[in-house]
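Lab meeting minutes (informal)
Scribe: AK
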Amino acid sequence: MDKNVYVIDGDAAIRDGLSTLGELLGVEVHCYSSAEEFLNQAGIPQELPGTDACIICAQELNGMNGLSLFKKLQQDELSLPFALVTSSRSALIRTRARRAGVDQLVKKPQADKALIEFIEQTTGATQGSPHRQEH
């Protein structure tokens, strides 16, 4: 089974950066510009692999936000490791994310190291061949 990272972020530059990061770690990266696009195209929950995959999602999205997506996936009984990336300094979002059970809360802009560790821990990724799919 391939190692998969699902990136949901409205900013194309962020998606590109996370794709490059994933490629360096040898994981297949699937990019989506919104939570709705992810839900419509990723085949939730049947088609997502379980053990060698994770989701990296921005909190600040047009339409459904990242925390709402996490809660929707929980309702659908999809339990992939989930990193919520936010530029917000609000204690409220941190509290809500922890209470909801988000696996990793990462603050922008110093997210690279935390996301590398998250991808490695959740997918068993190591340096390898690049894979990227833009949706």
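Next up, CB showed the second protein from the same session:
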Amino acid sequence: MTPSAPNDPLAATSASSSPFKGLAPPAFPLGKNALAPGQTALSGTQRLPGAKRAFDVATATTLLIATAPLMVVIAPLIKLDSPGPIFYTQERVGVNRRRNRSRRQDRLSVTGELRVNERRMVPAEGRPFQILKFRTMVADAEKDTGPTWAAPNDPRVTRIGRLLRPARLDELPQLWNVLRGQMSLVGPRPERPHFVRQFASQIPGYRTRLEALPGITGLAQVRNAYDSSEADVRQKLQYDLEYMHRTSLREDLWILLRTLVVMLTGRGAR
């Protein structure tokens, strides 16, 4: 069995009444040095890019068709509930397409003389893209504050938003991002440029997560609630790197099923 996070209500749900009780979860030995010597966090994601993409396209197409009637109902409710657009777009940092490239950088010694040309990987930002969501906050929610995390009982959330966010229904339009190849169904959750720069300067290895296609859901999302501190970000980074190393279609399916449990229970919603 997969070791559960402390006080993880999903663990109890899965152990008792979960409809997916019979599905054996993959092992994620977080914090036990799961990466073998010489292996990188990308070892898993590089094994099945074609199969993962085919799975994403087939599943996202099926879900779009299946949820289309629901989205047709949600759209006018958002418009009637508060002024503003139905959909909300926001810039997020996607996959680093230069992840397999390296370049030479000249390093100078303290005397100013050229010491050596070292060939090494130079961390780079991922490619930005516009993520698509149903709008669940008032228009221009960050006009006066700048980029901020959502808080419990956030007053910016609309009435319809308080219904959509616990079930993660506001994320349904991101299936379009998946079809466009900007996201995967499962992967590290894409973050905003402001926070990527902040975390990359504070947390070693943070940019490594940009070497995988971001996902609508991920191991970090089914194990933890929304971020509220740097400690949460550090913990989720460990889950992201573990997923990147161990990813497989079976594990993607397991994470998607766990995500359904999260949607049904409303765990971690704000």
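CB comment: The first strand starts at residue 87 and ends at 93.
No objections, moving on.
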